[in-house]
Amino acid sequence: MQIFNTFRINASALTAERFRMDVIASNLANAEVTRSGNGGPYLRREVIFEPDGEGGVRVSRVIEDRSTPTRKVFQPDHPDADENGLVEYPNVVVVNEIVDLMAALRAYEANVTAINVSKEMAKSALNIGG
Amino acid sequence: MSGFGLDRVFALLERGLDFAAQRQELLASNIANVETPGYKRRDLDFESLLKGLEEQGGELNLARTSSRHLPGYVAKSKEVFPVKEENITIRDDGSSIDVEREMVALLENGLYYQTLSKLTAGKFNLLRTVLKEVR
Q1: Which residues pair with A63 in a beta bridge?
Q2: Which pTM does this prediction carry?
Q3: What angle do CA B21, B62, B54 make, to 5 degrees?
Q4: What's the complex ipTM?
Q5: Looking at chain A, which terminus has fewer C-beta neighbours within 10 angstroms, N or C?
Q6: Which of A7, A9, A60, A116 to probe by mutation at the B interface, max B CB count within 10 Å?
Q7: What NCBIfam families does this protein map onto (chain A) (predicted)?
Q8: Which residues are CB-neighbours of A54 under 8 A, at least 6 positions away?
């Protein structure tokens, strides 16, 4: 039925936006991690969306942001300091992450509204007989 | 007076409801892809709803040997309205989705659908009233 397909489309966006919020949370949690699995500091991750071919949306991939520069702080006593006493901190900018988080939240809310509108449509169709 | 109220008005209401249900799916899709880079918004063409209203129900009418016979109405098989894609770019990520516009279109479409279903329900109520009176 068409109206249920509409629900499915917006639900796919809820899933995708939720995933994006998880990645942003992970960026914030790792904002001060100077040593990650690959040796250097943690690099912020970004979610890329694509249409899923059935009207909805899905996460196509998660990329590591290598264009934003990392922060270098002079801390000679730090175990991860280089020979000049500089420690490389992640390229996570907290303000940008919060703005991204708000954008994801608003997109999530827009989809919830869309689901509610579709729900009211379905309910009004059910009232035709009664 | 046409037969049993199953007339053009029902056909028109049905067509309008069909249109709004199909449009809702596209608008939902636009909102779902609000953050997808390069996505182009898709919508139904309202003109396609207006077009061809005259031939509504004209395909499978009952044979009539007198103009005073009941015309009857047989619903067409489910109609698919043409979809138009707006191949313009209004955002720097190549998308043509404007979330405010989509939300307004969505609400408008929802109310349109509810109006039509109220009208359909009202028409059934008319029939019910008539049937009660004869009983």
Answers
A1: A46
A2: 0.81
A3: 50
A4: 0.84
A5: C
A6: A9
A7: FlgC (TIGR01395)
A8: A8, A9
Interface contact flag, A120 B114, Cβ < 8 Å = yes
B15 vs A108: CA distance, rounded Å: 32
pLDDT band, residue B59 (cuts 50/70/90)? very low
Residue B35 CA to residue A46 CA, distance in Å, equals: 12
Q: Cβ distance B106 to A114 under 8 Å?
A: yes
* Mean pLDDT of the region B10-33: 91
Tens of pLDDT, residues A60-105: 999 999 999 999 999 999 999 999 999 999 999 999 999 999 999 9
Q: In this structure, what token pair is assigned to residue A84?
A: 């000049």
Quick one: tokens of A11? 């639900």
pLDDT confidence of residue B72: 59
